[in-house]
């Protein structure tokens, strides 16, 4: 069986990072997200994947061209205008063999055993099986109500707190029979969640599989950072030899540098005297952390510079960005590629700075 992974969306909630890096390529513990996806599919016994692409396809394709996938096939279906989630699946049809398929949203990190979902689907007469997971605050999601016999009973889009009847949400992992692909019109935008599933539900042919395995989507800065913390902490995909202090051998920290695990420091990083890196941080390739700077609970993509005395805490810093001397970036702030935060600025409360923006130094003489 093959999988279709939807990686064609713009990832607008994860901007400004996704202006330059497609959501499928954002790093978790210094590995592109799509790697976790491929491992997930392989562990589920699938033979290959068709990537349904649209927005920023090249970095994903370039990445896989460098690897030998050892018998696991990867095909690319690139749409020239957005086809939506169902349209994107339809667009992969030429690479499929006409049998049932697994479909996964390209921003889902899951510890689910795919083989179990496939087996349950096969036991039923459903045209589609949709995996559900429970979340703490369901009001931000589309909820899915299920009957006692696991047929989907009702969809509830982002309900008010007093309308919440379940905390089960669509986990973005499906098994679809070929009849479902056949009913999707080609070449136009169609949503699987809003158009196809409600139709199948009304026909009584949509089944649910409720999973209690680890699940997180990386679609927002908050959930991306949380997924990064989980992966660094070994919560998901842990092996016996999991290394909580993953520091590339090319990195020689200067005197007085504190590295507090779990942490991941990629190739070519320079950690200067008295810098502290920890609290579940990941530093991409070639980052420079200045004297006495502090990086905590954050994701730094490649070639980020944190100047002396600066603080980066619980935030996401895009590739090539620079945080000036004594500046503070905290509180789930997100900096776009190549932006420069001048000396002494304080960014807080989820502020987002677009790629290339330059904030002048803030006078320290007040
Ligand atoms: P937001 O813009 O932040 O909502 O993110 P998104 O673009 O990823 O949209 P959403 O999270 O709703 O999409 C779920 C999955 O479907 C993601 O993995 C997207 O990459 C993918 N997706 C969304 N729209 C399209 C599309 O038009 N074509 C294809 N091929 N995939 C899509």
Description of the molecule:
Belongs to the transferase hexapeptide repeat family. This protein is of the alpha/beta class. 18% of the residues lie in helices and 30% in strands. Strands 5-4-1-6-11-8-12 form a seven-stranded mixed sheet, sandwiched between helices. Strands 14-16-19-22-25-28-31 form a seven-stranded parallel sheet. Strands 15-18-21-24-27-30 form a six-stranded parallel sheet, with no helix packed on it. The structure holds guanosine-5'-triphosphate. The site of guanosine-5'-triphosphate (GTP) has 22 residues, from strand 4 and helix 3.
Number of domains: 2
Q: Enumerate the strands of the largest sheet in spatial order, edge to edge or round the barrel.
A: 5-4-1-6-11-8-12
Structural class: alpha/beta
- Number of distinct beta strands: 32
Strand and helix layout:
Elements: E1 2-6, E2 27-28, E3 31-32, H1 33-43, E4 48-53, H2 58-65, E5 73-78, H3 84-90, E6 101-105, E7 108-110, H4 114-123, E8 128-134, E9 142-146, E10 152-157, E11 168-176, H5 178-183, H6 192-202, E12 206-211, E13 215-217, H7 221-232, E14 245-247, E15 258-259, E16 263-265, E17 270-271, E18 276-278, E19 281-283, E20 288-289, E21 294-296, E22 299-300, E23 305-306, E24 311-313, E25 316-317, E26 322-323, E27 328-329, E28 334-335, E29 340-341, E30 346-347, E31 352-353, E32 358-359
Parallel strand pairs: 1-4, 1-6, 4-5, 8-12, 14-16, 15-18, 16-19, 17-20, 18-21, 19-22, 20-23, 21-24, 22-25, 23-26, 24-27, 25-28, 26-29, 27-30, 28-31, 29-32
Antiparallel strand pairs: 2-3, 6-11, 7-13, 8-11, 9-10
Helix pairs in contact: 3-6
The structure holds guanosine-5'-triphosphate.
């Amino acid at each position: 069986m093959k999988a279709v992974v939807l990686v064609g969306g713009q990832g607008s909630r994860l901007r400004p990072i996704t202006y330059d890096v497609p959501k499928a390529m954002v790093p978790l513990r210094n590995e592109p997200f799509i790697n976790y996806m491929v491992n997930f599919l392989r562990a589920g016994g699938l033979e290959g994947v068709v990537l349904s692409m649209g927005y920023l396809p090249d970095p994903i394709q370039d990445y896989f061209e460098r690897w030998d996938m050892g018998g696991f096939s990867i095909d690319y279906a690139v749409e020239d205008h957005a086809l939506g989630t169902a349209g994107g699946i339809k667009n992969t049809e030429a690479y499929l063999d006409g049998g049932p398929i697994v479909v996964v949203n390209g921003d889902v990190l899951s510890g689910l055993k795919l083989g179990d979902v496939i087996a349950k689907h096969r036991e039923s007469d459903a045209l589609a099986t949709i995996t559900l997971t429970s979340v703490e605050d369901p009001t931000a999601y589309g909820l899915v109500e299920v009957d006692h016999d696991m047929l989907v009973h009702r969809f509830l889009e982002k309900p008010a707190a007093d309308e919440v009847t379940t905390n089960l949400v669509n986990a973005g992992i499906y098994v679809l029979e070929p009849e479902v692909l056949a009913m999707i019109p080609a070449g136009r935008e169609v949503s699987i969640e809003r158009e196809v599933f409600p139709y199948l539900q009304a026909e009584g042919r949509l089944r649910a599989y409720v999973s209690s395995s680890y699940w997180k989507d990386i679609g927002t800065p908050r959930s991306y950072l949380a997924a990064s913390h989980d992966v660094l902490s070994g919560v998901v995909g842990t092996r016996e030899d999991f290394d909580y202090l993953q520091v590339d051998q090319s990195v020689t920290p200067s005197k007085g540098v504190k590295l507090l695990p779990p942490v991941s420091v990629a190739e070519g990083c320079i950690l200067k005297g008295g810098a502290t890196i920890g609290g579940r941080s990941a530093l991409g390739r070639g980052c420079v952390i200045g004297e006495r700077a502090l990086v905590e609970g954050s994701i730094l993509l490649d070639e980020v510079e944190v100047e002396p005395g600066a603080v980066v805490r619980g935030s996401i810093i895009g590739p090539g960005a620079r945080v000036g001397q004594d500046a503070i970036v905290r509180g789930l702030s997100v900096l776009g590629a190549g932006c420069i935060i001048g000396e002494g600025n304080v960014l807080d409360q989820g502020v987002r700075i677009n790629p290339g923006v330059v904030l002048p130094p803030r006078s320290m003489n007040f």
